[in-house]
Design brief:
With 347 residues, the chain is α/β, with parallel strands linked by helices. It contains twelve helices and 20 strands. Bound molecules: zinc ion. Zinc ion (ZN) is lined by residues 39, 41, 64-65, 150-151.
Length: 347
């Protein structure tokens, strides 16, 4: 039995003992969990009991953004040792699948992803995880930052999909955590300037505090007008759609320059209309993003090199014993909160 934060069913969390199979295979490591970030998807399972086709039918442990310390290594593990500080990729693909062989293991239909029913998450003191999806943290990267690598990886995947060129101007629609991560990844990837648009001023104030990021409050000015003014009517080289909001998606062509790129990052709950002719008339290239593949190494490298500082985005840290309070605060969705993290005691 282990202690765990369990989503019993929609709307009901408990911190209780749980029976979890944790056998260490020869290619696995056992990890003492230290920090876990609360993600929008965890919160959505809590409030709605499902995301699309994934339905919580049985009690499930939440959490997928984690960092910790290796306490045991399988017989075949070479690149990790006991005592290593690490963070983990929460999606484990079938490593022999066609998608994995193509390097697109994020879209492997059989991927097992933490805290996606029926797979348990990591809000428990120890996990067993494949060493191949466990990454060593540099000494100067904290557990808190290590647990931020997962959401940052989505921003990184978005920036890579955009194929940013040095000096590009980007616009990010939506200043939620993923919008912020995308803006920072786009800057680190070579953008000269990134405009972030939202209607929540407190969120814009947080991301606008970074050098190289300008904010647009769409309550005051339509984003298309602001981008036209900022680019002499030409448009942005890259548009990152991170809001998932239907009107924003419809308005995407107006933000991009002719021949520019649109990256669809945000996930609308229902199918939404797109302005196909608007996209065609500028020959915009459309890219989509689902999680990430082969991103963790480069994300950790950027953080370790001091090129990306994610610590201003950590809004609150609560102890494991107060996990339910942490989730209830995340449900409140305060405009001044970006990421709430849960800390587990060192064993
Ligand atoms: Zn997440």
């Amino acid at each position: 039995m282990v202690k765990a934060l369990v989503l019993e069913k929609k709307g009901e969390l408990s911190l209780r003992d749980f029976t979890l199979e944790q056998t260490l295979g020869s290619a696995d490591v056992r990890i003492d969990i230290r920090t876990v970030g609360v993600c929008g998807s965890d919160v959505h399972y809590y409030t709605h009991g499902k995301i699309g086709p994934f339905v919580v039918n049985e009690p499930m442990i939440l959490g997928h953004e984690a960092a910790g310390v290796v306490v045991e290594v399988g017989a075949d593990v070479r690149h990790l040792s006991v005592g290593d500080r690490v963070c983990m990729e929460p999606g484990i693909p079938d490593q022999t699948s066609r998608a994995s062989k193509l390097g697109i293991y994020n879209v492997d239909p059989s991927v097992q992803f933490w805290a996606t029913p029926p797979v348990h998450g990591c809000l428990t003191p120890q996990v067993v995880h494949p060493a191949a999806f466990t990454y060593k943290l540099p000494d100067n990267v904290s557990f808190a930052e290590g647990a931020m690598v997962e959401p940052f990886a989505i921003g990184m995947q978005s920036a890579l999909r955009a194929r940013i060129q040095p000096g590009d101007i980007a616009v990010v629609a939506g200043a939620g955590p993923i919008g912020m991560m995308t803006a920072l990844a786009a800057l680190a990837g070579g953008c000269a300037k990134v405009y972030v648009a939202d209607l929540a001023q407190p969120k814009l104030d947080i991301i606008g505090a970074y050098d190289g990021i300008e904010t647009i409050n769409i309550r005051n000015k339509p984003v298309a007008e602001a981008i036209a003014e900022a680019t002499d009517g030409w448009g942005a080289d890259v548009v990152f759609e991170c809001s998932g909001a239907a009107p924003a998606i419809l308005g995407v062509p107006a933000l991009a320059r002719p021949g520019g790129t649109v990256v669809l990052v945000g996930m609308p709950v229902d199918p939404v209309p797109m302005d196909v002719v608007g996209l065609q008339a500028k020959e915009l290239r459309i890219e989509t993003v689902f999680r990430y593949a082969n991103i963790y190494d480069r994300a950790i490298a950027l953080i370790g090199a001091g090129k990306v500082d994610l610590t201003p985005l950590i809004s609150a840290t609560l102890p494991f014993e107060e996990s339910i309070a942490a989730f209830d605060r995340a449900v409140e969705a305060r405009e001044t909160d970006v990421k709430i993290q849960i800390e587990l005691p060192a064993s």
